[in-house]
Model the fold of this input.
Amino acid sequence: MTTMMRRSSNWISPAAALALAILGALAATPAPAQSSASQEPAQATSPSGKPAASGKGGDAVIPPGVKLTAQEPPAAAPKPFHFPQSATKTLPNGLRVFVVTDRSLPAVAAQLVILSAGSIKDPEKLPGVAKMTAELLTQGTEKRSAQQIAEAIDFIGGSLDASAGKDSTAVTLDVVKKDLSTGLDLMSDVVLHPAFSAEELDRQRQQLLSNITVQYSDPDYLATLVFGRTLFANSPYGWPGEGTPASVKQLNRDNFVKFHQANYAPNQSLLALAGDISPEEAFAAGEKYFGSWPKKDVAPYDAAQAQSLPGVHIWLVNKPDAVQTQIRVGKLGIRRGDPNYIPVQVMNRVFGGGYNSRLNTEVRVKKGLTYGAYSSFDPHRYAGSFAVGTFTRTAATVEATKLVVDLIAQMAKGDITQPELDFSRDYLAGVYPIQSETAEQVANRVLTAAAFDLPADYNSTYPDQVRAVTPDQANDMARRYLAANDLDIVLAGNVDAFRDALKKAFPDAMYQEISFDKIDVLAPDLRAAAPEK
Amino acid sequence: MSNSIRIAAVVLCASIGLMSMAAESHAQTPVATEARPPRLNFTAHKLSNGLQLVFLEDHSDPIVALQLWYHVGSKDELPGHSGFAHLFEHLMFKGSAHVGVDEHSRIIEAAGGYDNAETNDDTTNFFEVFPSNYLERILWLEADRLGSLNVDEANFKSERQVVEEELRVRVENQPYGKLEQDLRAAAFTVHGYHHTPIGSIEDLDKATLQDVRDFHDTYYKPNNATLVLAGDFNAAAALAWATKYFQGIPASAKPIPRPSKPEPPQTKERTVEKSYSNTPLPAVVIGFKIPARYAPDSYPLDLASNILAAGESSRLYKSLVYDQQIAVQAAGFGSFTEDPNLFWAYAIMNQGHTPQEGEAAVLSILDDLKTKPVGATELQKAKNQEIASFILGRDTDNEKAEALAEAATIGKNPDLVNTELGRYLTITPTDLQNAAKEYFARDRSTVLFVKPAAQGPPPTQNDQERPR
Done:
């Protein structure tokens, strides 16, 4: 059951993996192929196509009796790829419905995205409301108990889940085709008529507190937590969507009723139906199950955005029993709607967006300091982050951190070569059909374009836009968005073993340190108040 | 393996639930059974050197998924060599006769594809998904590293460090990360399943470059491999290319060694107690010896895992997490592998509840399966979950290729992908009850109690055979 892989595919977005943290230890499975494709782009050196550049190898290493072909075969002419068609319609209550028809399997995936219900809408100093609101949707409605909902969805072998991200809440349904109406009936009921009962809240609260207890002993989680908080400072993007031990204890029914009332609105939502379903069927289903959802005014999001602080700021999270240090290095990035989004992704692919990037090549492949080193620009609606994530044995902490910062400094000079750029563009454009293989993947792209108000032809022209990025443009992005003099760095590990050497390596940085069991990200200095006697 | 992925996916989704009145209403509705996964119309071939080929054409997207499985996994490792199959997997990317260091993945990425590999108990699997016009080139790449290996001392040592970081991040620095290795070490005395594929740093440090060469020479042979393609290609052309690039690699002269010894029957319950410093909540894991993947009794046990742990209405979740609220997680799943392995039943306890309390609660739920036949509705639910996972779990070319590779390699018959669901659907309540009685027996079990360590004191250990 355990599977070990050459490279991990899910750690690059540690936040996404948190929910699996406990179970990951019990049932480690390879990440789905889609996620490895979507998250592991990139390259730094030669433009490939040329085998065995090193001059080693060749016939000398071929065992006796083995006959191999020396010449790398040519590629055939590429086949055209056309981004699948989708149909769309806006219902009278403002709900926008999208349909991707794909008859290859007798199954349908539905996804409702509520754009106004992300965790950035959590009340001041009370993170966790949006997420808990979503979790409680499936835990009882006005006419169904939690048990009845679970029994109904389990009986048809389907799944119905709700979760809140930073910018939106998503409710997803996966069912075989014949059970679509059963599934949509449940989905509609949990979104429109949740009960938010006190009893179910207490259950979910206990669950969440137990999960958080485990997460607060995991250096991976802690590094991401502190990094987000320090990067986004006091803006809502810096609060942990799952809440903190203190905030979760304060949540009450009123929070969810109000959040649901204020932020769940059809005119702020997108519904996608993908799979074995025609547009006509899908529009009728949208009307039948969500047509009665009343339109309402939603207060706009108006929180102040974080500003980057000048200088290098280093947070040390001390966990004396750690054998490895979790490293995060980064700064504020770009919004999803930024016109530079595609050039930035092309640039990042060169830097640290994939296995053969500069970052992974230096930190993992050449130096053996880690199992993986990746960078990402994660764009949200109103802000974004640039983050390098890696980890290394305690003794190599300073070496690895210094190497990451030096690579950022080098990249910020704007020295991307044409072969590097070609490699990045070829991958991002070439892998696009693979990442648009299933109806659900296509629907996700359609939803993303709609959610962030991207141009109507965004998906169909994406590969062309990638190929159009010039070396000047990519280097301009590197100079603009990377700077080694202005960085937030978080190191979570056995700090006593590397503190002094780190301060020698980064003499001008500003340092703060905290013990792993004293963290309260809601406090201005991140320090939990001393327990009351 | 696709089966364990499927099960794990179900387990991961498990959250909250119950079954009560709703079950009654289902009992009255006729059960629709027309939903079935589409048949996978593959063709199978074998080259004269023993390489098995399985092709599934599907032209809906201009892409191809390739799965190349070598029938060697961590169970084939000799004592003192734990983790070696996985270390070797990494080294397959370090160059061959005509492909430079890390050039393999660069060629695939430049094509707009992705690649990776995985090592488990029984097999080592290499895979790529790429635009279909590159198929011939990718076959050439795979043939080159099957036929030759070109790893030097520097690359070997550097990659070994990478693997050791992988071990630290997955096991040593991870809450509950040591749980699996400790359960398996106690449950298996001689069989290769007694250690996990990641192995130990101690053993990895002992590996030499000569070991690497010997391993390739012993196990990386065409007669020990299965190549599966799924997607947009022409099967006749693919057969011609596979023949052109792989035929020149001879079969092994000697039989492939299978060093793992059969595990002697367990006659007494074993208990182990551990305490890990980064593990704040108590836990209990019970491992029962079960039959192998594709064995007749694996099917009722797999359905039992649905009843125990699939969804919030499942029995373990409903009882321990929802009703009693003593656990934050409770689940059960079979690890169905080539040789008999373990059925895992476990609970991670809420604060203030002991692992012993968890053990009693888990065993009580398992006892219910032994003493009372499951109702028709609940059995139908378990079967519906199976049907749905066969349909939903075979969406991409890569998922289809993986299912075919497992059936061909472990099941020795790729057509199992089309027939296996039928085995689930014929299970009766009596079959399930009999399987529960036989396999969820205390004397087949190993119990691992995990206690949180206070900060500071060293881990404690206390292994014993507990009399019944």
